[in-house]
């Protein structure tokens, strides 16, 4: 009997010891996660900090607050803003976690945005909007392997006033980090039942949902992403008229291909209502693909951009506060140096002659029939196969710049899309072979490289085409309107 009691005592003490140790680990983890968040890159004027952490045996209480200090605090005119925007967290310690059930893990948290320290007027507004609940609520779970699952959500909103109505049935972001590594980080966004109504108009969105994943981070600078979002029932209504409405799918990703990056993005629109657009449509697609972007150059550009942001922020704070004016000249010089570096990287490193390409495509349909097609592809060649310094690039003339690209363009437009003021001009272009009209459609195919052009299978030159277009489009005399001006005037009248 004594042996059994001793065994139970050892187990209990072991569990308590493990819980105490895990609680210590959980505090280290929470403080580390918060310290790694940067709100104002390169500056500590505004940071997130764990201002309170009360560690207990089975759970802890913590406040993570926005801390405003330095120049920003001085701008507040002596008002102490620190501690007014906080997340209150309850951290449940493992290895046995008692939070909404029992689970095995390192820790779990329940979080809520604290409005108690806000000014009374702001606090009253938030309490009315969110019916007494916290504006943001969260929960998370940390596994022993460092994995993380978390959810951040906003309570439903249903507010009506003389100025209009605001409604939101659901807003949540779910995140999964499979290991202790910062990436991959997978997230899923859900928005449902959004409606905002005011005297100026109404915007509605039935749903928006999908994944936004950061697959990897190149040199801690450039994210590799994978995005898949779908929306239903977006509409903008003014004076009872639907000015714009559609369902949409957005997809995009970037891929690490060794020394270069590739990527693509596209948006598909369905059930389109857009009476003010010049091209009638009920569905459309816009897409872009790129290949051969130098990875090291992109990382360098990101670092330059980040430092530029830091310098601009410092200059703005100095200008607002009236302090640090003596540093303004050195900051301007640093900005100029960074801009020169950026231009140099873009002109000499970012693109790979012969390998860097960009393709863009646009499709428009109506009643199941294709109304408009635009498909282009540009391949960067460099000048004689080489990149040039920025100052040399700026000195090139038009013909030399033309030799740096190999471009193809395909355009196909239905008769019903062509505005009447442009029809006569297109017919003149057709007579010269610049466009082709067949089967109730207007079509043009262009391949351009250097000064040579192939238009609809016919070889010509840039100079010849320019001269021909100038002949077909003489400048207007007196008060006469050009074809383009007539077209724009018709759009304005519509």
TrEMBL record:
Protein name as catalogued: DUF945 family protein
Matching InterPro entries: DUF945 (IPR010352)
């Amino acid at each position: 009997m004594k042996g059994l009691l001793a065994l139970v005592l050892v187990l209990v003490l072991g569990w308590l010891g493990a819980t105490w140790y895990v609680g210590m680990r959980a505090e280290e983890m929470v403080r580390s996660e918060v310290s790694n968040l940067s709100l104002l890159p390169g500056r500590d004027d505004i940071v997130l900090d764990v201002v309170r952490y009360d560690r207990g045996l089975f759970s802890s209480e913590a406040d993570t607050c926005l801390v405003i200090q330095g120049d920003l605090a001085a701008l507040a005119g002596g008002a102490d803003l620190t501690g007014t925007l906080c997340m209150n967290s309850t951290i449940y310690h493992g290895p046995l976690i008692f939070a909404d059930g029992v689970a095995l893990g390192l820790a779990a948290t329940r979080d809520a945005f604290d409005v108690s320290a806000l000014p009374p007027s702001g606090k009253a507004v938030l309490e009315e909007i969110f019916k007494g609940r916290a504006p943001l609520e969260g929960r998370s779970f940390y596994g022993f392997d460092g994995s993380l699952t978390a959810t951040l959500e906003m309570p439903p909103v249903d507010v009506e006033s003389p100025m209009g109505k605001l409604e939101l049935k659901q807003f949540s972001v779910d995140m999964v980090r499979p290991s202790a590594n910062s990436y991959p980080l997978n997230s899923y966004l859900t928005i449902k039942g959004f409606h905002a109504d005011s005297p100026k108009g109404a915007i509605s969105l039935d749903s928006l949902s999908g994944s936004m994943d950061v697959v990897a981070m190149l040199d801690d600078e450039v994210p590799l992403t994978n995005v898949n979002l779908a929306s239903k029932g977006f509409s903008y209504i003014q004076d009872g008229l639907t000015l714009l409405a559609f369902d949409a799918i957005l997809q995009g990703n970037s891929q690490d291909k060794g020394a270069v990056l590739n990527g693509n993005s596209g948006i598909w629109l369905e059930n389109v209502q857009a009476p003010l657009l010049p091209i009638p449509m009920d569905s459309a697609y816009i897409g872009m693909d790129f290949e051969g972007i130098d990875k090291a150059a992109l990382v360098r550009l990101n670092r330059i951009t980040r430092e530029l942001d830091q310098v601009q922020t410092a200059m703005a704070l100095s200008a607002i506060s009236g302090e640090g004016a003596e540093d303004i000249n050195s900051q301007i010089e640093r900005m100029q140096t960074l801009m020169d570096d950026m231009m140099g990287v873009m002109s000499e490193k970012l693109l790979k002659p012969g390998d860097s390409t960009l393709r863009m495509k646009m499709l428009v349909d109506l009643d199941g029939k294709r109304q408009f097609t635009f498909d282009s592809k540009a391949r960067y060649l460099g000048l004689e196969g080489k990149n040039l310094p920025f100052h040399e690039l700026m000195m090139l003339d038009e013909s030399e710049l033309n030799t740096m690209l190999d471009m193809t363009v395909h355009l196909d437009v239905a008769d019903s899309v062509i505005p009447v003021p442009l029809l006569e001009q297109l017919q003149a272009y057709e007579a010269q072979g610049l466009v082709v009209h067949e089967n109730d459609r207007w079509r043009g195919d262009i391949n351009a490289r250097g000064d040579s052009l192939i238009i609809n299978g016919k070889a010509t030159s840039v100079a010849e085409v320019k001269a021909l277009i100038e002949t077909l489009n003489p400048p207007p005399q007196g008060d006469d309107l050009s074809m383009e001006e007539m077209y724009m005037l018709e759009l304005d009248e519509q």
